Amino acid sequence: MVATVSIPAYTGPIEALLHLVSSHQLDIFDIPLADMVDGFVAEIASWETVDLQAVSEFISTAAMLIELKSKRLLPGSGEIEPDEELIGWEERDLLLARLLECQAYAAAADGFALLIEQAAKAIPRTAGLDPDFVVHAPDLLEGVTPDQIAAAFMRATAERPAPVVDLYHVTVDAVTVADAVTEMVRRLPGSGRASFRQLTGHLTSRIEIIVRFLALLELCKQGRVSLDQGHTFGDLEVAWVEGAPTNLAVTGLPTDEYEG
Known about the structure:
Layout: E1 4-7, E2 10-13, H1 14-22, H2 33-45, H3 52-73, H4 89-120, H5 146-157, E3 174-176, H6 177-187, E4 194-195, H7 196-199, H8 206-221, E5 225-229, E6 236-240, E7 257-259
Antiparallel strand pairs: 1-2, 3-7, 4-6, 5-6
C-alpha cells in the first residue's frame, strides 16, 4: 500500500510530492501540512488493517516537509541552498531500508515458528531392534573347494601370451612415379587426345590414380604432354605433344615407392 495525500495543489503519493518540491515544481508554501496530516489520519481510520510501511513512509516524508517549511519561515532561510534542504533524504531511505529488513526478519521468524510447530507433532522412534534379531554376514567361500582356489591361483599367475596384430587382410601395393611415367610414354603417343578419367579408368586404388597424376605433371614439365581443363573441376584433357621424344630413358624422376 502506498501513502497518498490530497491537497488543493496535488493529489497522489506523498513520495512524489516530495520530489515535486525538491525539483522546484511545487512551492512548499502551497502545501497546507495540517490539512494533509488530517486527511491522511482520516484515511487510516478507514483501513481494515494498518500498513506500517505506508504509515512510516508518510511520517518520514511529512517530517521532511515540515522541516523544509520551517527553515523557509525562519529568518535567514534564504542563505540555505536548495540541495541542503533535502539533507534528510538519505536518512529517510535508510529508515525505509531498515523497515524492509525488519519485515524480512519477521517473515523468517514466522517461517521458523511454523516449522517448529510442525516438528512438535512428530514423535521419534525410541525402540530399537529386537534382542533376538541378529544379522549374519554371508559366507563368501561357501561351496568353494581347495582345488578350485588352486586352479584360480594358477590362472591368475599364468604368463599372458604376447598380443599379436594380424595383418593378413592388409595388402600393400608399391607404385613409383618412374614406373608410371614409363607407362604413360608407351601409351600416350598412340592414343591421341584422352581425358585423365579415361587413362585411369582401369585402376582400382586411389594411390595408383595419384601416382599417375604425378607422372603426367612430370611429363608436362618435360614438355612431352599438354594438359587442358575446360572449366573448373572439369575433366583434365591429356594430349601428347607432337615431336616430343618417345624414348623410355627417363632420368631425374622420383623413385620413392607409394604404398596404398
